[in-house]
Each structure stands twice: as structure tokens, then as C-alpha cells.
Design a protein that fits this description.
Number of domains: 1
Strand content: under 5%
Number of strands: 0
Order of helices and strands: HHHHH
CATH architecture: Up-down Bundle
Distance between the termini: 29 Å
Structural class: mainly alpha
Number of helices: 5
CATH topology: Four Helix Bundle (Hemerythrin (Met), subunit A)
Largest sheet: none
Radius of gyration: 19 Å
Length: about 130
């Protein structure tokens, strides 16, 4: 009886500790990506399109995509692949719109990306709503 109880407690502790680490990594990944997307938004919100630095935007989205691809490998271990593919698809769309300098469509794609990132963050938190 005691042996089973100890094993059960160890398993529960391992699950909780694992959840803490994965939640922290997910939060860090999402926060970094969201912050980078906010910087892109600030650049796109300039009053005149002539003031917008297209090269800076292209470099920023390239950096975001590279960073996301590095993080994707670890995130894919414990997050649904469909959710991660949504982010990749949205970032690719954002990249395409920025290449063509279509800032209105870029803004919409950026908002969708931020929404999906927040959705992933909320979905991975250990809570009663997510368990049941």
C-alpha cells in the first residue's frame, strides 16, 4: 500500500513539475514572438507609407520566423501540431504581404497571428477548464 502511494505521489509531482517547465517555455516563446510582432505593428502604423521602412520589416519578420522555427521543435513535443502550423501559416502569410508591401493585409495577418499565439498560451495552461 505504501509503495503504491509513494509511486503515485512521485508521478503526480513529475507531472506538475513538467507542466511548470513547459508552461514557462511556452509563455517565453509566445511573449517573445508577440513582442516582435508588436514592433512590426508599430512600424506599420506610421502615418505615411513613405515613412515605413520596408527593409526593416522584412528583416524583422525573417528573424521572427527563424526564431519560431527553432522554438517549434521543442514546442511540438507537447503542443498540438495543428496549432503550431496555424502560427507558421500566419507568419508565412505576413511575410508575403510584407514582401509586397501590402500593409493593410499585413496588419490583419499580424492580428490573427497574435490571436492564435494567445489561444495556444491559454490552451496549454493547466486548469480545470482545460482538463474537463
Amino acid at each position: 500500500m505504501t509503495k503504491e502511494l509513494v509511486i503515485s505521489v512521485i508521478i503526480v509531482v513529475v507531472i506538475i513539475v513538467g507542466d511548470i517547465f513547459t508552461t514557462k517555455y511556452t509563455d517565453k516563446s509566445i511573449e517573445t514572438t508577440t513582442q516582435s510582432l508588436s514592433e512590426i505593428r508599430e512600424e506599420m502604423e506610421k502615418e505615411n507609407e513613405e515613412e515605413i521602412d520596408a527593409d526593416k520589416l522584412k528583416e524583422q519578420i525573417k528573424n521572427i520566423r527563424n526564431d519560431w522555427n527553432k522554438r517549434h521543435k521543442k514546442l511540438a513535443i507537447y503542443i498540438e501540431h495543428d496549432e503550431l502550423e496555424k502560427i507558421e501559416t500566419n507568419l508565412a502569410g505576413l511575410n508575403g504581404y510584407l514582401d509586397k508591401e501590402e500593409y493593410g493585409d499585413s496588419m490583419a495577418q499580424l492580428d490573427i497571428s497574435v490571436y492564435v499565439l494567445e489561444h495556444i498560451k491559454n490552451k496549454t495552461i493547466l486548469s480545470l477548464i482545460n482538463i474537463f
